């Protein structure tokens, strides 16, 4: 795609966002790749190299001593060291400028919050906390907690589980409620770094389109949305596309390093 056409599409997207009543961002693994977080699916994804059965809730409950070391390795030792990239900071700047009503993320890496976003709905939970399967109490994850696996609840001695959605578990109720609200109320969905393959999250942009929302998509390659529901396709790495979009929106001076 030519630079001239790309610039024109960026301006179109900025215009749509500027004139929308409510805008939500819908993010997937692709927004965090530039932060060093590998995707879970696809030829280079984590699940292509590691058997995901350790993250099945039935396996976890029956064999937590086998599951927890893999959980620590995959979700805490590696992903926990990632830092936000410019795409995350751009979304936070859009929220501060009152151009973004909230973020629905499929990611569990906490990078939106680290970048400063406040209205983040975590569709698949997060790696910040653990929850006791016996008493239901939640605790922030600490290095000491992960030193002796599997970790036990300090109050009742029950098994602690990471506060993200395992295979075989339902989506958090609050995430479903906000997503269903956004389908009906948000005039623009800014879809970033997701292929549209993970059910049920993949359905929300499609449902939003049926309710009349404009779909602005940012992906390095065409997705399941591109030729079906996307109105403006901005092809490229999330960080560079979002940088240019924020410039077009007139909020680039709110980004880190812009002063």
Q: Can you walk through the features of this model?
A:
Helix 5 links the parallel strand 2 (102-105) and strand 3 (120-122). 33% of the residues lie in helices and 17% in strands. The mean pLDDT is 91. The strands form two sheets. Strands 3-2-1-7-8-9 form a six-stranded parallel sheet, sandwiched between helices. Strands 5-4-6 form a three-stranded antiparallel sheet, with no helix packed on it. It folds into two domains: 1-36 and 83-124 and 171-259, Rossmann fold (3-Layer(aba) Sandwich), CATH 3.40.50.1220; 38-81 and 127-164, SIR2/SIRT2 'Small Domain'. The chain has helices at residues 3-18, 57-62, 64-78, 86-96, 111-115, 173-185, 203-210, 238-249; strands at 23-27, 102-105, 120-122, 125-132, 138-140, 160-164, 188-192, 214-219, 232-235. Helix 1 packs across helix 8 (238-249), helix 4 (86-96) packs parallel to helix 8 and helix 6 packs parallel to helix 7 (203-210). The chain is built from eight helices and nine strands. The chain is elongated, with a radius of gyration of 19 Å. The longest helix has 16 residues, at 3-18. With 259 residues, the chain is an alpha/beta fold.
Question: Could you give a quick summary of the protein structure above?
Answer:
By secondary structure, the chain is an alpha/beta fold. The chain has eight helices and nine strands.
Q: Over all CA atoms, what is the radius of gyration?
A: 19 Å
Helical/strand content category: alpha/beta
- Model regions low in confidence, pLDDT < 50 over at least 5 residues: none
Q: Would you tell me the overall average pLDDT? A: 91
Give the N-to-C terminal Cα separation.
31 Å
Summarize the amount of helix as a percent range: 25-40%
The count of strands amounts to 9
Overall 3D geometry?
Answer: elongated
